[in-house]
Amino acid sequence: MPRTKGYAPADAMVSPRFSGIRTFMRLPHREELDGVDLAIVGVPFDTGATYRVGARFGPEAIRSGSALLRPYNPAQDIQIFEHLSIVDAGDLRVVPGYLPESVESIAAGAARFFESSVIPVFLGGDHTISWPLLRAAAATHGPLALVHFDSHSDLWDSYFGGKDTHGTPFRRALEEGAFDAAHSIQVGLRGPLYGPEDLALSRDQGLEMITGPELHERGVPWTLERIRERVAGRRVYLSFDIDFVDPAYAPGTGTPEVGGFTGAQCLQLLRGLADLDIAACDLVEVLPAYDPAGITALLAANLVYELVSLLAMRRKDDAARSARA
Q1: Alpha-carbon torsion, ordered 295, 242, 64, 136, to 10 deg
Q2: Which of 80, 101, 146, 290 could join 179 via S-S bond, C-beta 3.0 to 4.6 A?
Q3: Would you place residue 159 in the very low, low, confident or very high pLDDT band (cuts 50, 70, 90)?
Q4: Nearest to 23 by CA among 4, 38, 41
Q5: pLDDT digit string (tens) for 214-234?
Q6: Coil, strand or helix: which one is 293?
Q7: Rounded to two decimals, what is the model's pTM?
Q8: Per-residue DSSP letters for 92-115?
């Protein structure tokens, strides 16, 4: 095993991958944050879902899907645990069936990570959770730049009169000033809508939008350049809804939309964001009941791995700059 900075996964040459408690990447389960740089945090909440429910079991499925991940990311040439001490901090507390109470509980539970300067990577859960998570992040960092991969804008004002569903989190977070629309971007939006006003929601609220068809037409390199220009110089909250992926590759989700993206394209997109200053991320809407072969959870785990790799690369670069100073 390579040397590690602190907390790291179990050695697969000593403890087989199919054994042990299912934490992300077989990391130590530790709620205390001393000596921790990054924490994997589950948010098992799906009361905001408006169609298929069951994403409360997403964190568990993603953790199980992560068992095959290894410490060295060859695509990014990074030994993750040489630069980051990482734990699985378990799950935030939620109140099943009670949206306002859960929003408050999630925000309060997430706050300690930001206050401790630990970078959290959250596993959802439906997309409602991004609202309280952004609230907690902004309380420490101020308004963030949002980079949002999704097939839906999640900017509706309400759904069946409800203000706090998985279709409204970014409208609520924007109203609270948790992110800066002028430095935020939504990528991959597609699928049938109720009317043209829905398509205009992102730009009406001041965000940049790259639709799914536009991404297909212009390609990943162009999209990465647009993202970098939009968030340049800002701290970033990155939110990835698994329904950004085409349901052929990720069927286990609550509101699938055809015409999406392959796993390879998703990896290419995330790997291209190494220069972003990411304060926190989430990956949401994995629904195991519609994922019988576990391919959605496996892809989700690998996407989280790429996000963790980005953060390790950033920490490595920061250390190199400090050494030169």
Answers
A1: 180
A2: 146
A3: confident
A4: 41
A5: 999 999 999 999 999 999 999
A6: coil
A7: 0.95
A8: ----TT-HHHHHHHHHHHHHHHHH
